[in-house]
């Protein structure tokens, strides 16, 4: 499949959020990536349901909602109601991961699991067949603009190998430090969904950057 580009609205201009949403609508991006942070699972707070609903009101593409929060099960229905098309929970935040994944699927959302840089890919072996997507964090979650962690390439290759045997249609997403200089290598390693924030919104023409990422 062609790879997908999911601009992270965490890096958008919040004073001009509708403008940036419209830019993504009119660009070659495939999804909106929306990071939800609670200040507990990660040392930062982003935004909650009102902002997500505001994005959904204007978005013409699917909302890929990444929950960096403790006890995400409490809010799955609320995120669906606020507009999530896919919901990603962290392996590290879920005590009963299989139950959480099934709950997401029952909401008719894509079910995804993220792992932090220090979490081994092998921890997903028993759940990978149930997933629509795995998100490999290539920075420590919580802040945009961090330096890419090189070990990510190895982890992508490992998850790709697991997927070949257990779930060949698995989407493999990578988030953190993605830009035009490394997307080709990330794709070769196994990724097919790319989250990019600072590398898009810091440019004079974010739409052109999205196009460059899409066609590399």
Draw up the topology in text.
Layout: E1 4-7, H1 17-26, E2 32-37, H2 49-58, E3 63-68, H3 76-82, E4 86-90, H4 97-106, E5 110-115, E6 133-137, H5 152-166, E7 171-175, H6 183-189, E8 193-196, H7 198-201, H8 206-215
Parallel strand pairs: 1-8, 2-3, 3-4, 4-5, 5-6, 6-7, 7-8
Function: Catalyzes the reversible epimerization of D-ribulose 5-phosphate to D-xylulose 5-phosphate.
Family: Belongs to the ribulose-phosphate 3-epimerase family.
EC number: 5.1.3.1
Beta-strand residue percentage: 15-25%
What is the H-and-E element order?
Answer: EHEHEHEHEEHEHEHH
> Mind summarizing the main beta sheet?
8 strands, parallel
Terminal-residue CA separation: 14 Å
Q: Helix count, per DSSP?
A: 8
Shape: globular
Q: Report the CATH C-level class.
A: Alpha Beta
Unreliable stretches: none
What CATH architecture would you give?
Answer: Alpha-Beta Barrel
Rounded to the nearest angstrom, the radius of gyration is: 16 Å
Helix content: 25-40%
CATH superfamily: Aldolase class I
What number is the mean pLDDT? 95
Number of distinct beta strands: 8
CATH topology: TIM Barrel
User: Given the helix and strand composition, which structural class is it?
Assistant: alpha/beta
- Count of all domains: 1
């Amino acid at each position: 499949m062609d790879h997908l580009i999911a601009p992270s609205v965490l890096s958008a201009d919040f004073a001009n959020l509708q403008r940036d949403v419209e830019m993504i609508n009119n660009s070659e991006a495939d999804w909106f990536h929306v990071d939800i942070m609670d200040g507990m699972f990660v040392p930062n707070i982003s935004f909650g349901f009102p902002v997500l609903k505001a994005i959904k009101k204007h978005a013409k593409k699917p909302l890929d909602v990444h929950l960096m929060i403790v006890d995400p099960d409490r809010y799955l229905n609320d995120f669906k109601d606020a507009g999530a098309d896919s919901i990603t929970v962290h392996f590290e935040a879920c005590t009963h991961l299989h139950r959480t994944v099934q709950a997401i699927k029952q909401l008719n959302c894509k079910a995804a699991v993220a792992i932090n840089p220090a979490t081994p890919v092998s921890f997903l072996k028993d759940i990978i067949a149930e997933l629509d997507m795995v998100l490999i964090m290539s920075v420590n979650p919580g802040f945009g603009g961090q330096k890419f962690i090189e070990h990510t390439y190895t982890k992508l290759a490992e998850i790709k190998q697991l997927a070949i045997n257990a779930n060949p249609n698995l989407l493999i997403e990578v988030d953190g430090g993605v830009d035009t200089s490394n997307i080709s290598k990330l794709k070769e390693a196994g990724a097919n969904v790319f989250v990019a924030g600072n590398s898009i919104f810091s440019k004079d023409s974010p739409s052109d950057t999205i196009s460059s990422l899409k066609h590399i």
